[in-house]
Specification:
Blueprint: H1 2-14, E1 21-25, H2 32-46, E2 50-54, H3 59-68, E3 73-77, H4 78-87, E4 95-111, H5 119-122, E5 128-130, H6 137-148, E6 156-158, H7 163-171, E7 179-184, H8 192-198, E8 203-205, E9 226-228, E10 244-254, H9 259-269, H10 273-277
Parallel strand pairs: 1-2, 1-3, 5-6, 5-7
Antiparallel strand pairs: 3-10, 4-7, 4-8, 4-10, 9-10
Helix pairs in contact: 4-6
């Protein structure tokens, strides 16, 4: 009998400890969020978690998955988080902000000879701004900009986007849409919208620097946006300079997630950050 008990104990010790499940809600396949999520999942597997990354429609879906418990972790633009919190009062306690991934900046392109010349024009009735699909990162950024500076809401918003639309703006200064906005990693100088603008003399970038956009968020305790001058080209001397608003992309977690696991994620974002981004 003692031999049987000992055998059972040894067998139990030899069994592997089941890893905790970690679901990371990321973004569209091929995007920065998706690639970063896959890498984070690989690292967390080494920490003995059963980690998987899943694609999503972006920031808002990631937040909703995390707060509902469908996902453990999610990636979001900080302004998207602020926008969501304003529309879901009382739910901020359902998630935690663990740390930053990288910066993302707002870009607005217009026809160089069109009716929109500067930020002031974007705050008037003649502004007809395309912000890509409803619920996209740029659409949410535009909506949150309107929360902070209501004058941005005086014009008309179109939930359209893409290179075809950007080319239409370039070819028609008096078209139905006269501005195109997107949000992107400022270190990615190969982003196709930016390259299209730089290579087309009919297009230009508009500075975004209204000081009201720097207001501190009451719950997060810091401004969502900061004013920066991101590079617009690499290896070449351009006379194009840009002043715009940028924000952090952050990792959010379900508030009920295991604390040890969350500590490990914070460790990846800080001490072992180089592994996540090949720094």
């Amino acid at each position: 009998m003692k031999t049987l008990i000992a055998s059972i104990v040894v067998s139990a010790i030899a069994l592997p400890v089941l890893a905790d499940d970690v679901i990371i809600s990321t973004g569209g396949r091929g995007g920065s969020y998706f690639a970063t999520g896959e890498k984070l999942a690989e690292i967390l597997v080494e920490y003995d978690y059963q980690a998987d990354s899943v694609k999503s429609k972006g920031s808002i879906e990631n937040i909703e998955r995390v707060t509902s418990g469908e996902a453990t972790l999610g990636f979001t633009q900080l302004d998207a988080l602020a926008w969501w919190m304003a529309r879901n009062p009382g739910k901020a306690g359902d998630l935690k902000v663990l740390g930053n991934l990288y910066s993302e900046c707002v870009y607005v392109a217009v026809n160089a000879d069109g009716p929109i010349d500067d930020e002031g024009d974007l705050q008037g009735k003649k502004a007809k701004v395309a912000v890509q699909k409803r619920g996209s990162g740029s659409a949410v950024s535009w909506s949150y900009m309107q929360d902070l500076e209501p004058d941005f809401a005086k014009g008309t918003t179109f939930f359209q986007g893409g290179l075809q639309l950007l080319n239409e703006i370039a070819n028609n200064p008096d078209g139905e849409i006269n501005a195109f906005m997107w949000v992107s990693d400022p270190l990615n100088l190969d982003q196709r919208y930016l390259k299209t603008v730089l290579e087309n003399d009919n297009l230009k970038l508009v500075d975004i620097k209204d000081w009201d956009l720097n207001d501190k968020h009451p719950e997060l305790g810091r401004p969502i946006y900061r004013f920066e001058e991101p590079d617009v080209a690499k290896g070449l001397v351009f006379d194009t300079e840009l002043n715009t608003i940028c924000m952090d992309a952050v990792v959010v977690a379900n508030a009920d997630a295991d604390d040890d696991m969350l500590d490990d994620v914070v460790d990846v974002l800080t001490v072992n950050r180089g592994r996540l981004f090949d720094e």
